Amino acid sequence: MRIDIATLFPELCETWLSASIVGRAREAGVFELKCHQIRDYAFDKHKRVDDTPYSERQGMLMMAEPIWQCYKAVAGDRKPYVVFMSPKGKTLNQQKCLELSKKSDLFILCGHYEGVDQRVLDKIVDEEISLGDFVLTGGELPAVVLVDGIARMLDGTLGKSVSHEDESHFDGLLEYPQYTRPEVWQGMAVPEVLLSGHRDNILKWRRYKKLEETYKKRPELLETAELDLVDRAYLSEISAICDEHPKFFD
After folding, report:
1. In 152-198, where does DSSP find H-type helix?
2. Where would I find the tRNA methyltransferase TRMD/TRM10-type domain in this sequence (predicted)?
3. Annotated binding site for S-adenosyl-L-methionine, which residues?
């Protein structure tokens, strides 16, 4: 997979995406990533990429031409899938990361200032993506988050190709609690089932705990999660415990 990021601050993206698990995956060739300075494609000696908008709004707007020239130089004869990081876009989730991980060629555009001239967005952008209902200074942090989320979905990034499938949101539910050594810490013990070595019981416990965590913390996710009869029986049990003992899970 190839990912290109067009930004005014390529060094910010490079710093994060060269570190830790994602950095190792990149170094190992799991995916190819290049960050491009939009100013390099400005058409005046001052490398200017912004101008005042045609409106009464204060602030500066990124011009279309430098972005267009950057896109043409990077894409060449290819047609990458273009994502613009924007607070007007659909909110990023795990399924979107999985969907985009299937793309072979991704071009991510980071806005700045008061935004980007709409004409270049209309010309090249396939999709707008947001981290949530809030505004950041620029698109660099959202772009880094997006690449991190996508990279984790690629075979070879994590220790096992299915490691991400146990994580929160992959199947619409939150992840079950996890524990490590020591067996007892400050009087709190690891659940006995995890010490039993009984795989079927451990899998049942994990599923129950995923449902419990989701019920407690993000109950709205249960409305769209794929649940079977056993799951619904678990949820009935969890709900009954909560009704009878409201602070049982605190």
Report:
1. 192-195
2. 1-223
3. 111, 131-136
Separation between Cα atoms, residue 63 and residue 60, nearest integer Å: 9
Spatial neighbors of 204 by CB under 8 A, at least 6 apart, are none
Query: pLDDT by residue for the chain (250 residues), tens digit each?
Result: 999 999 999 999 999 999 999 999 999 999 999 999 999 999 888 899 999 999 877 889 999 999 999 999 999 999 999 999 999 999 999 999 999 999 999 999 999 988 999 999 999 999 999 999 999 999 999 999 999 999 999 999 996 554 445 555 668 899 999 999 999 999 999 999 999 999 999 999 999 999 999 999 999 999 999 999 999 999 999 999 988 766 545 4
| d(C-alpha 7, C-alpha 36), whole Å | 6
Euclidean distance between CA atoms 133 and 156, whole angstroms: 33
Q: Are strands 32-37 and 2-7 parallel, antiparallel or unpaired?
A: parallel
CA angle 180-183-188, nearest 5°?
100
Q: Which residues contact 40 (CB under 8 A, 6 or more apart)?
A: 47, 70
Burial 156-185 (b: 16+ CB within 10 A, else e): ebbeeeeebeeebbbebbbbbeeeeeeeee
